[in-house]
Amino acid sequence: MLVLAIDTAGKEGSVALLRNGEILELVSLVGRTYSEQLMPQISALLARHNLDKSVIDAYAAATGPGSFTGLRVGLSTIKALAEITHKPIAAVSLLEALAWAGARSVARLSEPGIADQPFEAQVIAALDAMRGEVFVGEYVVREDAVPQLLREVLMRMQEFAAEAQLAPQLPVITPDESVAAALRARGQPVQVVFRPQSDVIARIGALKIAASQVVLPEALDANYIRRSDAEIFSKGSS
Q1: What is the C-alpha to C-alpha distance for residues 96 and 75, in angstroms, rounded to an integer?
Q2: Which domains does the chain have, with CATH numbers?
Q3: φ and ψ at 91, to 5 degrees?
Q4: Which sign does the torsion angle of CA 18, 19, 23, 27 carry?
Q5: End-to-end CA distance of the chain
Q6: Given 3-state DSSP classes, what are the helix, strand and coil percentages for the chain, each rounded to the nearest 5?
Q7: Residue 165 and residue 146: Cα distance in Å, rounded?
Q8: What gap in Å lies between CA 217 and CA 79, rounded to an integer?
Q9: What is the dihedral of CA 222, 218, 41, 4, to 10 degrees?
Q10: What is the pLDDT of residues 65-100, one digit of tens each?
Q11: Which residues of 158-193 are buried (b: 16+ CB within 10 A; e: fewer)?
């Protein structure tokens, strides 16, 4: 199975190709120019591997939370490609990707030798939402299975830090030092990891496709969790 995955949710994005469980290539994208870069980079990526979009079996897309503009560009591109090729789409939350990528490293720290064993971990993934807020996702992650969503919410940073302090048994995973600092200030342990890229989106996408957890192009939507400024100000002034 050949999966094309994209992530345009943040300041930096990426595109990845996954074939039969192996990443063929991961390509970085520079933020603020996704609309100019994305299709040329996808075409060049396929050409380097002597592939055509007609042989892509499925797509995986990071749906947010993240940049409103970046997400619109990325999801519109995936929708167009899926409509042309008549292939399924797996929608992957960035919090889901963060939980999946971080769970194994947490398990390795707590249980040496876990790399060769099946594992299950309940973790909290956290992303800085700016404005003193944090995107929070709580997941159960299992070996070779789609992460199980327990909740995704937007919280005030201090509220989240206080809540995490009450459940120290749940590992908190974040790529953002601002979130880590708020937790450390309360004596709460935190695992700082790299922000997941499209290779992780592709791997989770493949799991979702195998489990028939796919969406049609018209149903693919961004996972903002928080409304855009335009929506907030429009409703506030009405």
Answers
A1: 17
A2: 2-93+197-234 (3.30.420.40), 94-192 (3.30.420.200)
A3: -95, 125
A4: negative
A5: 49
A6: 40, 30, 30
A7: 27
A8: 5
A9: 90
A10: 999 999 999 999 999 999 999 999 999 999 999 999
A11: eebbeebeeeeeebbbbbbeebbebbeeeebebeee
What pTM, to 2 d.p., does this model score?
Answer: 0.91
Tokens of 236: 């506030």
Location of structure tokens 């199975």: 1
Return the bridge partners of 192, or none.
Answer: 174
Assign 230 to helix, strand or coil: helix
The Cα 51–Cα 48 span in angstroms is 8
Average pLDDT, rounded, for the chain? 90
Burial class (CB in 10 A: 0-12, 13-18, 19+), 40: exposed
Apex 146 CA angle, 141 and 151, nearest 5: 65
